[in-house]
Amino acid sequence: MVKNMERWIQSQQCRKWDLHSLKLQPLSPVPSDIEISRAQSPKAVDVLAKEIGLLTDEIEIYGQTKAKVRLSLLERLKDQPDGKYVLVAGITPTPLGEGKSTVTVGLVQALTAHLNINSFACLRQPSQGPTFGVKGGAAGGGYAQVIPMEEFNLHLTGDIHAITAANNLLAAAIDARILHENTQSDKSLYNRLVPVVNGVRGFSAIQLARLRRLGINKTDPETLTEEEISKFVRLDIDPSTITWQRVVDTNDRFLRKITVGQANTEKGFVRQAQFDIAVASEIMAILALTTSLQDMKERLGRMVVANDKKGQPVTAEDLGVTGALAVLMKDAIKPTLMQTLEGTPVFVHAGPFANIAHGNSSVLADKIALKLVGEKGFVVTEAGFGADIGMEKFFNIKCRASGLVPSVVVLVATVRALKMHGGGPNVTAGAPLKKEYTEENLQLVADGCCNLQKQIQITQLFGVPVVVALNVFKTDSPAEVDLVCKIAKESGAFDAVPCNHWSAGGKGAVKLAQAVEKAANQKNSFKYLYSLELPIAEKIRIIAQKVYGAQDIELSPAAQSQVDRYTRQGFGNLPICMAKTHLSLSHQPERKGVPTGFILPISDVRASIGAGFIYPLVGTMSTMPGLPTRPCFYDIDLDPITEQVKGLF
Amino acid sequence: MVKNMERWIQSQQCRKWDLHSLKLQPLSPVPSDIEISRAQSPKAVDVLAKEIGLLTDEIEIYGQTKAKVRLSLLERLKDQPDGKYVLVAGITPTPLGEGKSTVTVGLVQALTAHLNINSFACLRQPSQGPTFGVKGGAAGGGYAQVIPMEEFNLHLTGDIHAITAANNLLAAAIDARILHENTQSDKSLYNRLVPVVNGVRGFSAIQLARLRRLGINKTDPETLTEEEISKFVRLDIDPSTITWQRVVDTNDRFLRKITVGQANTEKGFVRQAQFDIAVASEIMAILALTTSLQDMKERLGRMVVANDKKGQPVTAEDLGVTGALAVLMKDAIKPTLMQTLEGTPVFVHAGPFANIAHGNSSVLADKIALKLVGEKGFVVTEAGFGADIGMEKFFNIKCRASGLVPSVVVLVATVRALKMHGGGPNVTAGAPLKKEYTEENLQLVADGCCNLQKQIQITQLFGVPVVVALNVFKTDSPAEVDLVCKIAKESGAFDAVPCNHWSAGGKGAVKLAQAVEKAANQKNSFKYLYSLELPIAEKIRIIAQKVYGAQDIELSPAAQSQVDRYTRQGFGNLPICMAKTHLSLSHQPERKGVPTGFILPISDVRASIGAGFIYPLVGTMSTMPGLPTRPCFYDIDLDPITEQVKGLF
Question: Which first-to-last residue range defines the signal peptide (chains A, B) (predicted)?
Answer without folding.
Answer: none
